[in-house]
Amino acid sequence: MLTDMFEAMAELHFLGDALEGADFVLALALEKLPSEVGLVSLFDINRRQYVVVRQAGGERSGLLLRLSQRAKLAQQAMRFARAVVVKDAAAAPELIDERWARIGVTPRSLVCAPVELGGRYLGLIELANPHDGVAFKETDGHALTYIGRQFAEFVAERGVIVDPDIVLEDVEGEAP
Fold first, then answer.
1. What gap in Å lies between CA 83 and CA 78, rounded to an integer?
2. Which residues pair with 75 in a beta bridge?
């Protein structure tokens, strides 16, 4: 799977901005690790929060929902600079934040990968509930870590976009 992702990730660097990149990495992550929901968040350094800029799946939109940099799962991913795999979310409720309920999903298993470069927080990539019903494995975490690292290099070059008008414009085709 890593060889496939290595080849696929080369296309990322031909995209224009962080939101196009977020669309790309979310589609790739869900292609390789089919899941009920995928989220890509970028880091708002001024407010020290992750902002959901792209979403696939879920009953309701989670775009622009925010997560504190102090959230336990995000903190773990950033501290270890690799994806954190939660095999049984019911056994670790302290790792589940309110964004999931707001988008209408109850995580059973999830994986959260950091998007960071040299200790600089740039975002998160999160997947919940694999389609096959089996919990995420550590190898899934390795794959998402790789995607997160490549995306981090891209975002560091292109810049973080968390402006609500721009985020929603790219999704809806026009500004709200």
1. 8
2. none
Over the range 120-134, which residues count as b (16 or more CB within 10 Å of their CB) and which as e? Answer: ebbbbbbbbbbeeee
CA dist 142 → 61, 88, 98, 137, 148 (Å): 27, 18, 26, 9, 10
pLDDT digits (tens, 9 = 90+) for 149-162: 999 999 999 999 99
Residue pLDDT, tens place only, 2-14: 667 777 888 888 9
Give the three-state DSSP class for 35.
strand
Q: State residue 94's pLDDT score.
A: 92
Residue 124: what pLDDT?
A: 98
pTM, rounded to two decimals: 0.93
Domain ranges of the chain: 2-172
Diameter over CA atoms, the chain: 42
User: Is residue 140 classed as helix, strand or coil in its secondary structure?
Assistant: helix
CATH topology of domain 2-172: Beta-Lactamase (3.30.450)
